[in-house]
Amino acid sequence: MTLKISRILHAGYVFECEGTRIAFDPVVENPFSRNCQAFPDVRFDHAQFRDVRFDAVFISHFHDDHCSFDSLDLLDRATPMYIYCLFDELFEMVRELGFTDVHQLRIDAPVRVGAITVIAREAMDADVDSMFHVQAAGLNVLNVVDSWIDPDMLPALARFAPWDMVLWPFQTMREIEVLSPSRAAPAPPQLPEEWIAQLAALKPRYVVPSSCQFVQEPWSWYNHAFFPITYRQFRDEVGAALPDAQVVRMNPSVSFVLDRDSLVAAPPLSWVVPVGEQDVDYQYHGHATPPRTADIARHFPALTAVQHARVMDYCATGLLEKYRGMELPEESFFEKPRVWRLSVFDHAGEGTHFHYRIEGDQIGLIAGVPDTLSWTTEVPFARLYAALEEGEALTSMYMRINDAVFDHQTEADLLDAELVDDPLIRCLFNDVFGAYQAAQLRRIQERGQVVDPAG
């Protein structure tokens, strides 16, 4: 017996065994998650993909680069959907999209689909995501997705060693560091020590550098600042530490047949079409000076008058209402009186500046320009609008925090501050679930493509 494993993109895979075909996190868009450009580049033949029938689809978590309704919209609505998520709202939206066989995955509860058994395993952040343990053809494959393995979970997984294959998220994304690049510590020059220790405990026959596989817009400085680890570095370090394991790169569309003794190349997925050079690698330049937010904003189109008014109204009133209704985090930087400047830049690079006085859960606009500042946030108009109306994620907003030098006491206080304590981040993303999928669902419904579950 054999197991065929094919790569879609990012954390997306197709597993096939004895006539059973299932998909994991199938995102068939490029770009996906708004501005994630496939790396290496691919396109998708959606006409072919519509004809593919899966015996089940498994989704590891609700993040938009794993659960995209624009991709799910291409699937037969009778496809059984198994989703790990703690929020009922996602299941309601998937059913509203038209799917009729929707299930909530439980940790350590096996789901058998034909010749394949899938077990959701607990990830580091169990409130958000999961890992997948796949059993088929007498083989064990661990799809870590883009989570990390909790140390308390490792002994349970190690009992299955040696694993036949581990799909390992090989990047340490610096999505927080790029928010405040002038204050970020340099990236470590090697893989995290715990990765090697955990892989050693799993004793895999084959390791696939998984997840990521994207860059931002061609002009984006993030392309050299987000991902510090290259495919080559991962291969060399893992190969040196685990001489009995083979590191196998799987670009989009690539397929292999795995059995107890070997891994053999197989025909690729026909609906994933490689474009250009495929064995590309990341180039990290952590020392490079990032462009100004004003210059970044010039890359985005002008908002309409209505869209511009939406952003202005939010900065003047909506943000204040949202902030006052939230609970302040413990030991927040804003427990003490602070002056915050929010700067929003338009397509011409012109900035509109809002000043607020914050103390605890109280916030108010300040007329004029204050003498001193305690915190600064910059963002393009277009990206703030997208976050308000289109479910834009923090990682693609090009937000810049505290790119300034403050007075001595403020600088001392900032040493213990969390960047995610930023008032704009909290107002946009705290207590908000499924904004990306909700925006997609609205667009799909407006196109009239939602299938009635009743037929």
Could you describe the 3D structure shown?
The chain has twelve helices and 24 strands. It is an alpha/beta fold and 455 residues long. It has two domains: 3-274, Ribonuclease Z/Hydroxyacylglutathione hydrolase-like (Metallo-beta-lactamase, Chain A, 4-Layer Sandwich); 293-446, 2-Layer Sandwich (Nonspecific Lipid-transfer Protein, Chain A). It has an eight-stranded mixed sheet with strand order 8-7-6-3-2-1-17-18, covered by helices on one side. Helix 8 (305-324) packs across helix 9 (381-389). It is globular, with a radius of gyration of 23 Å.
Task: Give a quick rundown of the structure.
It comes from Massilia violaceinigra. This protein is of the alpha/beta class. It has helices at 46-51, 69-72, 88-96, 154-158, 193-202, 231-241, 293-297, 305-324, 381-389, 408-414, 423-429, 435-447, and strands at residues 3-7, 13-17, 20-24, 37-38, 42-44, 56-59, 81-83, 102-104, 110-113, 116-122, 130-136, 139-143, 165-169, 206-210, 214-215, 246-247, 255-258, 263-266, 272-274, 338-345, 351-359, 362-365, 375-380, 400-401.
Low-confidence stretches: none
CATH top level assignment of the largest domain: Alpha Beta
Which structural class best describes the helix and strand composition?
alpha/beta
Q: Kindly identify the CATH topology of the largest domain.
A: Metallo-beta-lactamase, Chain A
What share of the residues does DSSP label as strand, in percent? 15-25%
Find the CATH superfamily of the largest domain.
Ribonuclease Z/Hydroxyacylglutathione hydrolase-like
